[in-house]
Each structure stands twice: as structure tokens, then as C-alpha cells.
Write a structure and sequence with these properties.
CATH architecture of the largest domain: 4-Layer Sandwich
CATH topology of the largest domain: Phosphatase 2c, domain 1
Structural class: alpha+beta
Number of helices: 19
Number of strands: 22
CATH class of the largest domain: Alpha Beta
Number of domains: 3
Shape: globular
Distance between the termini: 98 Å
Length: 578
């Protein structure tokens, strides 16, 4: 039977599925297969998934292993955060699945061959198929009469008649799973088979049978299985066909229409009530947004903050997209050091979102009031910012605009990150979009050098920004001075923090130097490492400080050497001329 995603919108991913799985000449069928095509937003954010598994012959529970692998994958993948990439989501699911299969095999059957299965899956998201594979089941791509094997068998042959699986789920405590991504086009077919099929029918013949059956993919799957059986296959036989009927299109017209479904709100004045929120006063206004203090009249008159977009950008889809994007990010993060976005409890007439109200001051204001803070005060603030920032990184989000103005300190001393408009979300970046992202959405003085050079950021880019803030709190200065472009970094070198504040220990300055390296590879790789190194001496960093200049800063060394040579040459020429 064909399964096709209902055409709810012209831009929806749609597929047709055909499948057949039989025991063949064996007593029971140890193969399993499955497809899941979710509805609504989940299809957009997570894509659809197809998988085939073959329980290993000779193991005690091959049938149970393959069935569990299919069901667990299809259930668990769609529950992972939609901010994660497909690769991260599936890898975490399969790591847990492999661990469970291995431990159950050891516990119930006292054998590494207790619960073992091959695994070959595809997640089709946007216009890309993400493939995950271990074992000797296969995935092919068919286009017209052409066929291409996309997976590599993990099978070792002892002789012409004997072979064994070198890799499979449940066979070892760790699973080495192949991953690759391929672009797909409408009309292409992904063909999944177990070895009972592809060992007994040629690739060309499978392609011919698919072509001969046209739109009847179930009939094609049955024909492939029948022919493999007729060719004396002695194994279970399973075949799954997934045809890409339509890919999601990112047309600007549709995208803009969706963004502008909700109108911009009017200018709000004290006393006005909008969707149950009574405006008290304006907190902040710029050419991009307005921020108001309000009371929620339907929820005990609690104080909240309403953020509205500026009418100056009413016809700017990129701006509207970023505004909606900020609420999307905030609703997925629950951390005491990140501003809470209030849930949508009632229908909204206008485009805006509501957040908790923080009574306090920005970090910029705090820095103005504390020009020479104690080291322990700075460390406490940095520790809290890092705690909030880690919540972004765990969801594969990069903040990209960390600065003192985007950090609040409430009256109890709790530090919160309050702005997410520039956040990069790995999972969303995998989807086709008609709007190109600005590579530099952050603030020049705090954005990592790689952004200025047009490169993508990483968690190390956020660590750089946090280190700039730390340096500025301690010294009142910026580590490289005012930044106007990528060229600025090429002309300057790090100014030691101790140059401005001798109370800073040399080991702490060494930690700042590392975090503020112009090369991302030379920085701390984790926030916890940076926080640790500004709280306790790291002997390795002190050794680097004592190293020769050519090792610490090769660029500065060669600049100084060139300058010295120039002075020497000028001196010699002057002497000869005299």
C-alpha cells in the first residue's frame, strides 16, 4: 500500500513508500523495517525517517534486536530537540540503543551475540538525505535506470563461502556508525535491502523491476523479493522503497506570507490593554524594537515585559524572521541564567512576545558602577553567564551576540542572558530558506574574528565574546581596542590584562589570552575549561607564557624581526651614505 504525505501546503515534503518483508526459507523473519512521516511542524523541523534492520544470524535474539532497533529509532529520533542537527540527534539515539542492546545481550544471554542487528536508516530533511549505517544491509539511490549504492558493507570474508559481520548494533560496547549526507531531488528513489535480497539479485535487475512497476512501489518491492527468492536466497528477504515526490520549496512569496500573517501592533501607551496585558510604561525603544513593562490582567496582575517589532521593518521578511526566531529560541531554553519567554496561553492579535520581568540593571550599567570590581565578583558573574550560555550550546545553539547590554543582573545578584535575536540554531540551518543569514549579526567589539572574516561561528566564538566581557570587567578596556573590521585584528595583538590592572594574577591573564586567541583552534574548547582557568592556575598555560615568542605569537615574532631588519638596513645605508 502506498503512503503519501497529505498535501497541506505547496511546500511540504511528500513521499511514496513501498515495502515487502518475508521469512523466505527460514523459520522466522528476523528482518524489520519501518517509515515514519510526521505531520505539521515536525515534518518541517525533523524531516521523515526510514530504516531497515537485519537481526544477525546465529545470535540468540536477532528478531527482537532488529524490531527494537526500528521501533526505538522511529520513536526516539522525533523526540530529540528540534534545535539539534540530524546527525547529533540520531547519533545520540543510536549510542543509547547500542548500549542497551549490548548490555541486554550480556545480561540475558551472557554473550556478545545476544542481541545484534544491522542498521541502515535515512532521515530526509529539507532537500538532504542523512544516512546512518552499520552492518551489511544497504541503501541505494535510484534515478531513472541508474542505481548507486550509498552504503558500505561491514562484512569480512574468510573465504568464498564464509564471512562475518565486522560491525553491527549490539555487538560491542561502542558502535562505529557510518554517516553521510546526500542531496536528493524529486523523482529519486531510496532503496533499502537486506543481504537476503541484494546477495541474490543484481543492482541492475532491481532498478529494472522498479522502473517496470512505475508508481506501484509495493509491487516493485514484492517483485524484487520474489526474484531474490527464486534465485535460491536462503535468508530473510526485505525491501523498502522511498520515492521523493516533492521537496519543500523555500519560495519567498510563501515565506513572506507566513511571516506576515500576524500584523504588527500599534504604538502602545500606558493604560492600553492588548490581549489581556495592561501597558504600564515603556522601558526601552530603538529603531528596531520597543520594550514595555505590563501587567498580566488575566494572571494575578503579575508584571511582564512585552517586546514588539518596529513598524519600520513591517515589509522586511529578514527582520520579521529574526524577531520570531528570538521567541523560538527562548521557548526552548529553561535555565535560571537565561531570560524566560512566557508561554502562549491565549490567542494573540498582533506580532509580539512576552517575557519575565527582571528588576535590576544591565551588565553595562553594573560595570559603570564598579570600575574596579573584585576578582571574585567578576568570576561569579562569568560563572553565571557561562551557565546560561551552556544551555544554548547543549541544544546546538550559538548565541553570537554576547555583550554587556544583553546581560541583566537582578536585585538578588542573579545574572541572565536576555537577548537571542542573533542565535544560530544548527537544526534550522539544515533547512532550505529563501533568506540568507547575515554572517555578522553580533556587535563588532565582541564578535569573534572569524565572523569578521565571513566564516561560520562555533561555541568557541561565544567563548571569545565571554572572554572579551571578562577582560573589560577587569580592566575597563577591550583586549584589541575598538574593532571596526577584520583588518583591525590583523594590525593588533593582545594587550595583557595586567597592563591595565596589576591585581590580575599572571595565570588568570594567561587564561584570558588563550580564550581571546584570534584562531578558534587555540581557544578553550569548552566553557567549563575557560571558567576553570580563570578560577584556578593552569600549569600548562603558564608554561606557554614562558615559551619563546615565536611559539606563543609567531605573527608578532616575524613582525618584530622584520622591523628590526628594516632598522638595521636603514642604519647600514645611512652609514654607507655618510
Amino acid at each position: 500500500m502506498s503512503v503519501e504525505q497529505a498535501e497541506k501546503a505547496p511546500a511540504t515534503l511528500a513521499v511514496t513508500v513501498g515495502q515487502c518483508s518475508r521469512a523466505g526459507r527460514k523459520e522466522q523473519n528476523e528482518d524489520s523495517l519501518g517509515v515514519r512521516v510526521p505531520e505539521g511542524d515536525l515534518l518541517h523541523t525533523k524531516g521523515l525517517a526510514a530504516v531497515i534492520c537485519d537481526g544477525m544470524s546465529g545470535c540468540e535474539a536477532g528478531k527482537e534486536a532488529s524490531a527494537l532497533a526500528v521501533q526505538s529509532f522511529l520513536d526516539d529520533y522525533f523526540t530529540t530537540p528540534d534545535s539539534w542537527t540530524v546527525k547529533t540527534s540520531v547519533t545520540k539515539v543510536l549510542t543509547a540503543l547500542n548500549s542497551w542492546l549490548y548490555s541486554q545481550g550480556q545480561r540475558q544471554y551472557e554473550s556478545a551475540k545476544g542481541m545484534v542487528t544491522t542498521f541502515s536508516a535515512a532521515v530526509v530533511k529539507s532537500n538532504t538525505a542523512h544516512l546512518f549505517h552499520i552492518g551489511d544491509s544497504r541503501i541505494y539511490r535510484l534515478e531513472g535506470e541508474g542505481i548507486e549504492q550509498l552504503t558500505t558493507d561491514h562484512r569480512i570474508w574468510l573465504n568464498n563461502e564464509r564471512d562475518y559481520l565486522s560491525r553491527a548494533l549490539g555487538i560491542d560496547v561502542n558502535a562505529d556508525i557510518d554517516y553521510r549526507s546526500v542531496l536528493v531531488e524529486a523523482g529519486q528513489i531510496l532503496l533499502f535491502t537486506t543481504d537476503g535480497v541484494h546477495d541474490f539479485i543484481t543492482e541492475r535487475r532491481m532498478a529494472e523491476l522498479v522502473q517496470a512497476h512505475g508508481d506501484d512501489l509495493d509491487g516493485a518491492a514484492v517483485a524484487i523479493v520474489d526474484e531474490a527468492y527464486a534465485n535460491d536466497s536462503h535468508d530473510n528477504l526485505s525491501c523498502l522503497l522511498l520515492r521523493i515526490d516533492r521537496l519543500p520549496t523555500a519560495s519567498e512569496e510563501e515565506f513572506y506570507r507566513k511571516l506576515t500573517e500576524t500584523p504588527f501592533p500599534p504604538d502602545l501607551e500606558p493604560g492600553m490593554i492588548m490581549d489581556g496585558y495592561r501597558v504600564l510604561r515603556e522601558l526601552h525603544a530603538s529603531n528596531r524594537t520597543q520594550v514595555y513593562l505590563a501587567e498580566d490582567t488575566e494572571n494575578g496582575n503579575r508584571k511582564v515585559v512585552i517586546k514588539t517589532p518596529s513598524v519600520n521593518y513591517e515589509d522586511d521578511p529578514a527582520y520579521i524572521d529574526r524577531f520570531l526566531h528570538e521567541e523560538w529560541v527562548g521557548r526552548r531554553i529553561d535555565n535560571p541564567h537565561v531570560l524566560k519567554i512566557c508561554s502562549r496561553e491565549r490567542k494573540r492579535q498582533f506580532l509580539y512576545y512576552v517575557t519575565e520581568y527582571i528588576e535590576g540593571q544591565t551588565l553595562r550599567e553594573w560595570m559603570h558602577d564598579h570600575p574596579r570590581p573584585r576578582l571574585d565578583e567578576v568570576r561569579d558573574i562569568v560563572r553565571q553567564i557561562a551557565h546560561g550560555l551552556r544551555a544554548f550550546h547543549r541544544l546546538e545553539m550559538i548565541h553570537q551576540d554576547l555583550k554587556p547590554e544583553n546581560i541583566m543582573i537582578d536585585r538578588s545578584g542573579t545574572v541572565k542572558i536576555i537577548d537571542f535575536g542573533s542565535t544560530k540554531i544548527a537544526g534550522l540551518s539544515e533547512m532550505a530558506r529563501p533568506i540568507e543569514e547575515d554572517p555578522l549579526l553580533g556587535t563588532l567589539n565582541y564578535a569573534a574574528p572569524e565572523y569578521h572574516q565571513g566564516h561560520k561561528g562555533s561555541n568557541r566564538s561565544d567563548i571569545f565574546s565571554l572572554a572579551v566581557i571578562t577582560y573589560e570587567m577587569l580592566t575597563g578596556h577591550l583586549p584589541y581596542g575598538e574593532i571596526s573590521s577584520a583588518q583591525t585584528y590583523k594590525k593588533r595583538s593582545y594587550t595583557p590584562a595586567r597592563h591595565y590592572n596589576e591585581a590580575i594574577p599572571s595565570w588568570m591573564d594567561a587564561a584570558l589570552r588563550k580564550a581571546l586567541s584570534l584562531s578558534p583552534e587555540r581557544r578553550h574548547s569548552l566553557l567549563s575549561e575557560f571558567v576553570h582557568d580563570i578560577e584556578k592556575p593552569n600549569p600548562a598555560l603558564l608554561e606557554e607564557e614562558d615559551a619563546p615568542l615565536i611559539q606563543k605569537n609567531p605573527l608578532l615574532f616575524w613582525k618584530l624581526l622584520a622591523a628590526a631588519e628594516a632598522v638595521l638596513i636603514v642604519g647600514l645605508l645611512w652609514k654607507l651614505a655618510g
